Amino acid sequence: MEYDDKLIEEAVLALLTAFSFDNGNTWKGVDFETMNRLHEQGFISNPVNKNKSIWLTAEGLERGRQIADRLFGVGTQVGHISDSDT
């Protein structure tokens, strides 16, 4: 199956944001090419270093939060079954 690189980038950024700590620090165990593209777009610090984490830029953190809310926010998914519905 072929995947849309833009959708993958958005999902990765959302996941980086969802699992960030200290207001934007997050682990960088994600596909290198995707991480490089996010860095080129100004959303994250340079992933090419010896650190096991990267920093989300202010723009990346804001964009990632928007995407994470849209993709993963409770009650935002059509057909999502919550515990109260069962």
Describe the structure.
This protein has 86 residues and is mainly α. The protein has a single domain, classed as Arc Repressor Mutant, subunit A, CATH 1.10.10. It is 44% helix and 7% strand. The protein has a two-stranded antiparallel ribbon with strand order 1-2. Helix 1 crosses helix 2. The radius of gyration is 14 Å and the shape is globular. It starts with a helix and ends in a 14-residue tail after the last helix. The mean pLDDT is 82.
The largest sheet, given as strand count, sense and whether it forms a barrel, is:
2 strands, antiparallel
Low-pLDDT regions: none
How much β-strand is present in the residues? 5-15%
Mean pLDDT: 82
Total discrete domains:
1
Pfam families: DUF6429
Domain DUF6429: 5-73
InterPro entries: DUF6429
Organism: Pseudomonas frederiksbergensis
What is this structure's SSE topology?
Elements: H1 5-18, E1 25-27, H2 32-40, E2 53-55, H3 58-72
Antiparallel strand pairs: 1-2
Helix pairs in contact: 1-2, 1-3
Give a summary of the structure in a few sentences.
The protein has 86 residues and is mostly helical. It has helices spanning 5-18, 32-40, 58-72; strands at 25-27, 53-55. The model has no long low-confidence stretch (mean pLDDT 82).
